[in-house]
């Protein structure tokens, strides 16, 4: 028999789950936009070490965002079904989520910002992906704070 979900924990993680799904949706849109230029980027990477590094960095930063958001969703499903005596596990999962999301936001922000990604005329989808990735960095930051708040709420609930 499956354990029944903890209602207070479910209430705590529901806003996080909703916002995380929204961030995942944005991430998918950004990746789809970037894939539009994948063939050209790979061709340029064959001839330029700088282009190859930027292509690899684009892929790695997008993957870091998806991984951190997937971990957040996974935790949203796991926390409510943990037994009531697993308070320490709940707190640790909330803390780990905050850390993972903060690291992903920081990692992505080093690459996806207006200083390193310039807007290029006639490549609207790329420019939209840059703007979307910058928004995703902000969302990762908010989710980091949200998981910290969930950890505090779970500690208070005992």
UniProtKB/TrEMBL annotation:
<keyword id="KW-0812">Transmembrane</keyword>
<protein>
    <recommendedName>
        <fullName>DUF1772-domain-containing protein</fullName>
    </recommendedName>
</protein>
<feature type="transmembrane region" description="Helical">
    <location>
        <begin position="88"/>
        <end position="107"/>
    </location>
</feature>
<keyword id="KW-1133">Transmembrane helix</keyword>
<feature type="transmembrane region" description="Helical">
    <location>
        <begin position="6"/>
        <end position="24"/>
    </location>
</feature>
<feature type="transmembrane region" description="Helical">
    <location>
        <begin position="139"/>
        <end position="157"/>
    </location>
</feature>
<feature type="transmembrane region" description="Helical">
    <location>
        <begin position="63"/>
        <end position="82"/>
    </location>
</feature>
<keyword id="KW-0472">Membrane</keyword>
